[in-house]
TrEMBL record:
Pfam families, alphabetized: DNA_pol_A_exo1
GO BP terms in the entry: tRNA processing
SMART domains assigned to the protein according to its UniProt record, in alphabetical order: 35EXOc
Any one GO molecular function term: nucleic acid binding
Presence of keyword Nucleotide-binding: no
Protein name per its UniProtKB record: HRDC domain-containing protein
Domain HRDC: 209-289
Cytoplasm as UniProt keyword: yes
Residues forming coiled coils: none
C-alpha cells in the first residue's frame, strides 16, 4: 500500500510515473520538542491507490520534492496544514501551493469546527483509524512498521474526503472562501516575522500597568529573536510567567536582580546582564504606544456581547462555526479601536462589516 523512498532518483522516477495528477495528498511528520523551528522528519504523498513515504533526511531528497510542492497545476491536499507548512518551508525551502485544507473545508461546509483527521475520516468514510504513533520519534531510522502504517494512513483517505468537501463547498458557493483562507495560510507560513505585540498573548500580562506591559513586550520581542537565532523553544529562552514577574518594576541593582533569578527554577543561566539592561533602559514613546492587554473587566462587556450576538446572527443561517467566522480576540481588537485585523479581511469582513460597524466605538 505504501513505498519507502529515500533517494532523489527513486522519488523523481515515481513522480514522473504519476504523470500530471490534478491533486496530491500531502502530510508531514516532524519534531519540535527541543527546537524553535520544526524538524521535518517524513513527507507522505498519495494519489488514489498509491502512497509514498519520503525520507527528507536522505541526501538530495528534500530538493527533489520541491518541483512537486511548487507546481501550480497540482493541488496539495492537506489536513490542518499550518504546522506542516512551517515544517516544509524549513525542511525543503519552499511552501506547497496551491493548497486545499480539509479541516478548514469541513468547517466551511458545515461538517464541524476543528475536526481532527481521525474524526474527518470516520465521518467521511466510516473508517476508524488508530492513534498510536502521535508522539513517535520520527527522526529515528528505520521507522517501525506501526509508524509506517500510521504515516500512510494520514494521507490514504484525504482524496475521499476531498471529493465530498469540494462538492459541498461548490454547492454552497464557498470554494473561493477556502481558496482565500489557504492562500493566507501559505503567506503566514512564509513570513518569518515575529509578532510585534507578543504581550497580548500572555494572559497574566493583564495584571501589569502600562509601563510593565511595555517592558514585557520588549522582553518578549528579544526572546523571539533569541529563540530563532539559537533554534530553541521560546520557553527555554525565557518563561512567560518569569517575563511577567521581571516586567513589574525597573530593577535597580544587578545583585538583587541575580538573587531574584536564583530563586526562580526557570530563570536563564545566561543572558542575565542583557536582561538587566533591557529592563533598565528607559521606555520610548513608541514602546509606550502599544495596545494594552486588558482584562475582560476593562472592556465594554455590553458592547462586546452585542458584537458576539451579531456574529452569531450572521453565522447561524450560514451554518458556519462562530469561531471560524470571527474569534473573540478579533472583536476585542475592534472594540479597542485597533482596526480590522488581517484575519478578518476578505469574505469575513464582507459578511461582518454591515453588522459590526455600527457597534464599533467611533
Amino acid at each position: 500500500m505504501s513505498d519507502w523512498i529515500d533517494t532523489p532518483e527513486a522519488l523523481r522516477a515515481r513522480l514522473q510515473a504519476w504523470g500530471n495528477p490534478e491533486i496530491v495528498a500531502l502530510d508531514t511528520e516532524f519534531i519540535r520538542e527541543r527546537t524553535y523551528y520544526p524538524q521535518l522528519a517524513l513527507v507522505q504523498l498519495a494519489i488514489p491507490g498509491e502512497v509514498l513515504l519520503v525520507d527528507p533526511l536522505a541526501p538530495g531528497v528534500a530538493e527533489a520534492l520541491r518541483p512537486l510542492l511548487i507546481d501550480p497545476s497540482i493541488i496539495k491536499l492537506m489536513h490542518s496544514a499550518s504546522e506542516d507548512l512551517q515544517a516544509l518551508s524549513r525542511g525543503c525551502g519552499v511552501l506547497p501551493s496551491p493548497l486545499f485544507d480539509t479541516q478548514v473545508a469541513a468547517a466551511m461546509g458545515g461538517f464541524g469546527a476543528g475536526l481532527g483527521y481521525q474524526k474527518l475520516v470516520e465521518q467521511m468514510t466510516g473508517v476508524t483509524l488508530e492513534k498510536g504513533e502521535t508522539r513517535s520519534d520520527w527522526l529515528r531510522r528505520p521507522l517501525s512498521e506501526s509508524q509506517l502504517k500510521y504515516a500512510a494512513d494520514d494521507v490514504l483517505y484525504l482524496h475521499a474526503a476531498h471529493t465530498v468537501l469540494a462538492a459541498k463547498l461548490a454547492e454552497l458557493g464557498r470554494s473561493a472562501w477556502l481558496q482565500a483562507d489557504c492562500e493566507r495560510a501559505i503567506r503566514n507560513a512564509g513570513s518569518d516575522a515575529d509578532d510585534v505585540h507578543p504581550h497580548l498573548a500572555v494572559r497574566s500580562a493583564q495584571m501589569l500597568d502600562a509601563d510593565g506591559q511595555a517592558r514585557l513586550c520588549r522582553l518578549l520581542r528579544w526572546r523571539d529573536v533569541e529563540a530563532r537565532r539559537s533554534d530553541k523553544p521560546k520557553s527555554w529562552i525565557l518563561d512567560n510567567e518569569l517575563a511577567v514577574a521581571l516586567s513589574r518594576r525597573v530593577p535597580d541593582d544587578i545583585h538583587r536582580f541575580n538573587e531574584f533569578l536564583d530563586r526562580n527554577p526557570k530563570a536563564p543561566r545566561k543572558s542575565r546582564r542583557e536582561l538587566f539592561a533591557l529592563l533598565s533602559e528607559p521606555l520610548t514613546e513608541a514602546e509606550r504606544a502599544i495596545p494594552l492587554n486588558r482584562s475582560g473587566e476593562n472592556l465594554d462587556k455590553q458592547r462586546l456581547k452585542a458584537m458576539q450576538e451579531a456574529v452569531a446572527a450572521v453565522a447561524l443561517p450560514l451554518e458556519l462555526p462562530e469561531g471560524l467566522l470571527c474569534a473573540r480576540k478579533h472583536l476585542e481588537a475592534l472594540l479597542e479601536g485597533r482596526g480590522w485585523p488581517p484575519a478578518l479581511e476578505g469574505w469575513r469582513r464582507d459578511l461582518l462589516e454591515p453588522v459590526l460597524a455600527p457597534l464599533i466605538p467611533a
